[in-house]
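Below sits the subject:

***
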Amino acid sequence: MRLSVILLVACAVLVPTLNGELAPQECPSACSCHYYRVHWVASCSHRALSDVPSGLAPTTYMLELNGNALTDFFVDPEVKLRRIVLTNNNLKTLTKRNFKGLGLLIDVEVSGNQLTSISPDTFQGSPGLITFEARRNKDLTGPTDDSPFLESRSLQTLDLCDSGISIIGSNFFSKTPSLRKIILSGNPLRTIRPGAFAGLQGLDELHLANTLISHVAPADFAPDPPLRVLNLNQNRLNADKLKTLVSKLVHLEKLDISRCGLTLKASHVGTFAHCNWLHTLDTAFNDLSGLDLTRALGKLNHLEHLDLTSCNLNEKSFKSDVLSNLTRLRTLKVSDNTLGLINMTSVLQPLSKLHHLSVGNCQLRSTKFLRELPKVRQSLRSLDLSRNPLGDQEVNTAGTIFNQLESLDVSYCGLTTITKDAFSPAKNLITLAISGNKVQIESGALSDLTRLEKLYMRECNQRGAPPADVFPPESKLIELYLSGNPLDLDQNQVVPQHLKNLQVLDVSECYLRKITASSLVGAQNLVKLEASGNILSSLDDALPDLGTLAPKLEILDLRNSRVRRITPEAVDGCSRLQAVYLEENPLQCDCYMARLWQWAISKGVALHERRGSALLRCQGQAELWPKPLDSLIC
């Protein structure tokens, strides 16, 4: 009978109006509500709420309460929620009382709170729970004895990243037998007790990056573990114990052991010998100079993605036949290795399916090896040549090397001029990075790049955006990155009319004292404006009327820009605005800022990211917002 009632209500809700649209449902006055596909979503984020608002529609599918002041919560069980998001509040504990009556819950997220404990029976009344995320709760330590963390037979994904868990006991997961994905990265893990994962017969992914462990033992898993993805990066691993572990994980498809302080020698040549199904291997920032990579990688016939960045490669470890058996390779990253004396033509010859090649900072002085590899050039779609001393001649005359590329990075390559012929063959380019080159750009230099969407020009000694004669007549540029340039916005534009399709603009660390209206004349489609790290110290005229100039703006980043105050009028016309980031500024707590705070609450606009401790403070005061504003009489 109860199920019939629910179905009748759901059908009534989904009856379209005469114009074909779904009829609106109830919505609390403190929230904004909308349909996502056919699901009713209540967005009540960044409203300074201390309680869950009343008036939610019974058929509300998703409730968003991010960035509020909740220390506890309770949702009317008449609301048939499937998903609830409570990130960046002040929750300290979770018990089954918080989720009483929410029997249809599928996903719960409580990241970025102040949780110290979660009762194991918290989700006893939610038998269909699939995903639980509790990232960035530094005081959440979990059970220190051998008891289970949670009880949920349906739970498949558990994310406890960047919390305070130091011990994983043998029974930590004993009451969550259906887990397929576990994320424990960023926890101060010191101990994983034997058999910790042994009861998880379907465990597919395990993420243990950036913890304090030195090894994971085969005895921690079930016999013949089905694990496909293992992430151990940024740990201090023991190379011998790693070899023992990997030999048992015969179903691995993706392994990340980057930044683990490993020194792999001749005795470790068989470390990956049993990983016959491995398609992604990341060993970046380890010392592989003593390892014969030809033998170590020779049996990985299914490998598609290989990262050997900063592995101290040399002629002994990186021989000309090192990749001869890896004919399926699509991504190869060997940046930050000295490859100037290695025959790169021979190394890359077998890789006719290569799509992405990264050889940045390899002391390369020529692109000749690419000219000699026509099959590789035909397949290549992304090429990173950054931080090599190539100079103008090599880049501006590279010609047909670039003709199939969609992404090219020649940042910090000693360029002084980009000629109109440099990239003319690269008609398929979507992303181009020329950062770190003090360049003069000739007229027509990018005019053939009719598909170009992203342009990186950081630290290029530019005063403004490139002029119209550099681009095609109808530029499709969507993202422009100008950070680190000495921009002069009194004389130049950063979103001129010829870049009217621009959606993302980065002018961070550009010594800006103000952002002028004249510099944003083409900003009608701008969605994100990054202006952090500037010197916008003026009280009232640091920002123009962005509602008129950039009405579609969603994100405005003003962090660490010496902002003392801004008025709501500068951004009130931006109807889609989601956030104005003001952290690390000497904010002057006066009635102007009190008005901004009240306006932000009424619109649901975030004024900080709420990550770590960099929240909003008034200049000279220790208390966080909004306490200093509450005492003002305005």
